[in-house]
Amino acid sequence: MPLTLDPADPKAPLLHTRLIEALRIKGYAYSTEKSYVDWIKRYINFHAPAHPASLGAEGIRAFVASLAARDLAPSTRNQALGAVLFLYRHVLRAAISSEGLASEATRDLTARPDKRIPTVLSRDEIQRLFSALPIGASQLIARLLYGTGLRVSEGLGLRVKDIDFDQNQIIARDTKGNEDRVTMLPSSLVPPLRQQLDRARQLHAFDLAHGHGQVDLPGALRRKYPNADAEWHWQYVFPSERLARDPRDPAGPLFRHHLHESGLQRAIHAAARLAGINKLVGPQTLRHSFATHLLEAHYDIRTVQTLLGHKDVKTTMIYTHVLRQGAGAVRSPLDALPA
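Structure (tokenized):
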């Protein structure tokens, strides 16, 4: 039986309905919405048939302990905790703080994620990877990620208005911290990006001629400007081949969304194998390589931090571990002995 918001009132709004409403009022991305709903369902099933309103902190601790026992990654466990806390704070309106959950059972959950050294390609490997990628959108996006340091979601979600050819810059919007930032536009990408925009414009004209041509807009812009979603400057630079409805509005209009990350991942994985690169390579590897190669070129780490959009320079510092610094740059006294 579906749970209601108030276990004592069968006519109260459904818990799932209020959860979705709260997530959308807060403006969470659809991917986050799906993840939060999934974790909250797991939490409810873990304690079934008890209603989450009757559980509180002790119920969260028990759920957290079960996740720790499964040896899930810290980032995964943190996301699960964030989802459950969202349920209590914004749906059930219960005063539960993450600090109040500190205990021997939950301490591991809120620990920092492991700081693993990122996979980075050499300049030679980058060239081999690009050569192995077929000419087209996947190769252009790969070059864009390496040439600008954009995240995968930022590169795929790039809109026409975000490319400034006059100023030779790209504006990354809807970033992790919901703050816009500026990165460079490599001169070598100008001609292929102009060609890509020509293809996207032709597709947009075709859509308009057939009664479509809309894209999803961030926040409440679609309600504020009802016709903006069909304007050229809001269109995606890398549009999908298919029209689709917004999963949050199944009865809404057909949209032209951007290309999906999975297609880019498959293309890069295949190209890495073809190029004989014996590393675990994905789209994010190109961003890691961008940062590392800038540091190798002696750019200031604060500059690299700004280009990557990192809140804390400690996050950017991870790339210094890939350079020949520390133990790798120190000559062993054994090697100093006469041969």
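The chain has two domains: 15-101, 123-320. Strands lie at 163-164, 169-172, 181-184, 239-245, 254-258.
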